[in-house]
Specification:
This protein is α/β, with parallel strands linked by helices. About 35% of the residues lie in helices and about 20% in strands. It is built from nine helices and seven strands. The chain starts with about 25 loop residues before the first helix and ends with a helix. The N terminus is likely disordered.
Length: about 240
């Protein structure tokens, strides 16, 4: 597959699932970014990475796409020292904030990639290698003309499924009901994924409340959670 083809809906460099906003960084975030990014950030590269080299162990790897300010990311990594975590984010203020949390909490099982998640998946992550994807409150892109930017839709879900290991799961939470409905349909249409529940998943107690969730709840929004697992099959063993 030619990954430079701008007409490809998965890899297109013209259609992004995010918009870079010129948010201000606090002095603490700037300082943490300058001091700690070299140690905890993995530079984007068009080459498959080796998790064992990065983490110096063979623990399972969870990838979080779009961690925002990293509050939930740091808590989950702290609660699960026997698992490795890679957080992907394009907004530098959030990267700086999470770098500070990594240092304050003494985390050694968390790394950051500051880049477009779809390109990270396409170029850096081995197939059948990710034990879980966490997608907490992604941009719902509510206007119809922007639906093409939504992360959780085919063929992007096919790419996510290809990177999952057998039995690995994809978890998504959103407070935007139309996106939840659409994402559920798209995931159910992804051949190698199966829904762990009849529809939406119950509240997952392992997930801390995020800043976006707090805002949604204040606006009286319901929270919708999806949990899909990669089925065993030939795709897992390729």
């Amino acid at each position: 597959m030619d990954t430079s083809d701008d007409t490809n809906p998965v890899y297109s460099r013209e259609i992004h699932t995010y918009v870079l906003r010129a948010g201000r960084m606090t002095e603490a975030q700037k300082r943490d970014y300058v001091i700690h990014s070299a140690r905890w950030c993995i530079p984007f590269q068009e080459r498959i990475i080796n998790y064992t080299d990065i983490f110096e162990n063979t623990n399972p790897v969870t990838v979080e796409i779009g961690f925002g300010m990293g509050k939930a990311t740091a808590i989950i990594a702290s609660d699960n020292p026997d698992r490795n975590y890679i957080g992907i984010e394009v907004h530098r203020a959030g990267v700086g904030r999470l770098l500070g949390e990594i240092e304050r909490r003494g985390l050694t099982n968390l790394r950051i990639i500051e880049h477009d998640a779809l390109e990270v998946l396409a170029y850096m992550l081995p197939d059948n290698s990710v034990s879980a994807f966490h997608i907490f409150f992604p941009d719902p892109w509510p206007k119809k003309r922007h639906f093409k930017r939504r992360l959780v839709q085919r063929p992007r879900t096919d790419l996510l499924a290809r990177k999952l290991s057998c039995g690995g799961y994809l978890y998504m939470a959103t407070d935007w009901e139309p996106y939840a409905e659409s994402a559920c349909q798209e995931l159910q249409a992804t051949p190698t994924l199966i829904n762990n529940h009849e529809g939406y998943a119950p509240r997952q107690q392992w997930r801390p409340e995020t800043r976006f969730e707090e805002k949604g709840l204040k606006a009286s929004h319901n929270i919708y959670e999806l949990l899909f697992t990669k089925r065993d099959g030939e795709a897992c063993r390729e």
